[in-house]
Design a protein that fits this description.
Layout (H helix, E strand, L loop, with lengths): L2 H13 L3 H26 L13 H10 L9 H17 L5 H28 L5 H13 L2 H6 L6 H17 L4 H14 L7 H10 L7 H19 L1 H7 L15 H8 L13 H37 L1 H20 L10 H24 L11 H21 L6 H12 L5 E4 L2 H13 L2 H5 L4 E4 L6 H10 L10 H7 L6 E3 L11 E4 L2 E4 L2
Parallel strand pairs: 1-2, 1-3
Antiparallel strand pairs: 3-5, 4-5
Helix pairs in contact: 2-5, 2-6, 3-4, 3-19, 4-5, 4-9, 5-6, 5-8, 5-16, 6-16, 6-17, 8-9, 9-11, 10-15, 14-15, 14-16, 15-16, 16-17, 18-19
Length: 526
């Protein structure tokens, strides 16, 4: 057969592969993406408790999972249940493994699986172009090494699972939309993990309504809705059951949600509503600047340009897909801009994921363009964009590794060790900031080292006294301690001279002259 005919035959086979071959190719790319991502995350994950990469909440999540409790709003029932099971299995298989390290690896696994699903979605959307498999792999790996995603894969946090479920939602909607029950299940799981998952539902709903798989009768939709809502209710039912405890409440028990009032306070995020109130021009402008900087920094300016090219392709050839992409990215972008916290950029993860898909489509445009103009040149001409993208992935890993890697991170662990060395038995420790509070909670109810060194120690968070449920919880946890449920002033007055009291930081409500340095803490001496 002449060479030109062999080229045409090869191209035709790539465009119309047998079903079994197509399934195999997709699975192979997904497994390869997952394996490479997990290897990178395993190597760079924090060795234990960490505050890095906005990871201060890890101590709270770990302590809640290990005590069967309820973490901070919105309670994250799916994540907590999965983390609890993961820790039990991990500690059974490796009894010497630190719980915090296992929690970090849970995020690494979830993030790696999101890379595999991303490869499947990218491969489906790219279509039959030269180097399709390599472009899908490059898309998944570019997502893997994007700083926002990489950072959350190395710590104990909810966002790696959040993005796995987001990628699964896009995959089920775009490629498996006839399975409405599956779509409803993914939606329920996503909402049970993080409530901002609701921001992705307009895009999913639009595609299901607009697509060819739009149901002809109401029965499939009703069945899917009932099934999804039932699963969602079942998952959130974990919260009041856990809050009530077995005989006594768990020590990590936000909202003390054994009744409706506490449950609604927790799941509605009542404590955080004030962060949506700062809509001043200067505040919004600063967050818009952060939004632009975050999106640009994920894939560099070149990657952003390729993403723009991919979006143009969707706009010209698949306008419904363009609308889906915009409905996916814009709500989370608006929320991140409106939410006035220093770490609000983390909510942009779904938007940066969509950027990766647009980037992959941009690479496919270049691949098709080069293939059509290769003339008599080598067959690999159309594969050049994918090869360059894979080289770019390796370059990004090398350049970003020193900043992203947490292999040597020891700040939180060192702080906890110093606290443990300072405390005495029966100490009262008063904290305010999240990082120190959650590190103490992990030390007491996660690893257990704090209570081993200082048995009878009592941990109190000054900031939580503003909520009625917290005084009630402390009263039930420490019924023999006078004044504990009434507030900080009563606690200090009633226990003057009875128990040593330490503060993790200087508070305006405590006279400076009553505090003296003691290791990383402040000893209270009235």
């Amino acid at each position: 057969m002449p060479r030109r005919r062999r080229e045409v035959s090869a191209a035709a086979a790539d465009r119309h592969p047998p079903v079994s071959r197509a399934l195999w190719n997709g699975a192979a790319i997904a497994l390869l993406s997952t394996g490479l991502a997990f290897g990178l995350y395993w190597f760079t994950a924090a060795p234990g408790l960490t505050w890095a990469h906005d990871g201060a909440d890890g101590g709270d999540l770990l302590a809640a999972a290990l005590t069967g409790g309820v973490p901070h709003p919105s309670g994250y029932p799916l994540y907590t249940a999965l983390l609890q099971g993961w820790l039990r299995i991990g500690q059974a298989l490796a009894p010497s493994a630190e719980a915090a390290r296992l929690g970090n690896l849970f995020s690494a696994l979830a993030a790696a699986l999101s890379a595999g699903v991303t490869a499947l979605v990218a491969r489906y959307l790219i279509g039959p172009v030269p180097g399709r498999q390599a472009i899908a792999l490059a898309t998944a790996l570019l997502w893997t090494v994007s700083p926002l995603q990489w950072s959350q894969a190395l710590i104990t946090e909810v966002y790696a699972l959040h993005m796995l479920l987001a990628a699964l939602l896009a995959w089920t909607v775009l490629t498996q939309s006839r399975g409405l029950l599956l779509v409803a299940a993914v939606m329920a799981l996503g909402l049970a993990n993080h409530l901002t998952f609701a921001l992705l539902l307009p895009a999913a709903g639009y595609w299901l309504w607009r697509g060819s798989a739009h149901p002809r009768t109401a029965q499939p939709v009703a069945l899917a809705l009932v099934s999804g809502l039932s699963l969602l209710v079942l998952l959130y039912a974990r919260i009041p059951v856990a809050a009530a405890g077995e005989g006594s409440p768990p020590p990590v028990n936000w909202g003390y949600a054994d009744g409706w009032e506490g449950f609604w306070w927790l799941v509605s995020g009542a404590a955080y509503r004030g962060y949506l109130a700062d809509l001043s021009g200067a505040g919004v402008a600063a967050r818009i600047g952060g939004w632009a900087q975050t999106l640009t920094g994920q894939y560099t300016v070149v990657g952003l340009a390729l993403a723009g090219l991919g979006l143009m392709l969707w706009d010209r050839r698949r306008p419904a897909l363009r609308t889906f992409g915009l409905l996916w990215a814009l709500p989370v972008s608006a929320y991140a801009v409106a939410y006035s916290t220093w770490d609000s950029r983390i909510y942009l993860l779904p938007a940066t994921w969509m950027l990766a898909l647009w980037l992959g489509s941009g690479l496919s445009v270049l691949a098709a363009w080069l293939w059509d103009r290769r003339d008599g040149r080598a067959l690999w001409a159309g594969y050049a964009p994918a090869v360059i993208a894979l080289v770019a992935v390796a370059t990004l890993v090398a350049t970003r590794l020193p900043e992203m890697s947490l292999r040597q991170d020891d700040e939180a662990r060192a702080y906890l060790a110093d606290v443990v060395a300072t405390l005495e038995p029966e100490s009262i420790v008063v904290s305010g900031a999240d990082a120190e509070t959650f590190a103490l909670w992990y030390g007491a109810w996660g690893s257990g080292v704090l209570l081993e060194k200082a048995p009878g120690a009592m941990l109190v968070n000054y900031a939580l006294y503003q909520f009625p449920w917290y005084g009630r919880l402390l009263g039930d946890l420490y019924p023999a301690t006078p004044g504990v449920s009434a507030g900080l002033d009563a606690l200090l007055a009633e226990n003057d001279g009875r128990r040593p009291v330490y503060f993790t930081e200087l508070l305006d409500v405590v006279p400076r002259e009553t505090l003296s340095p003691a290791g990383p803490l402040w000893r209270y001496t009235p």
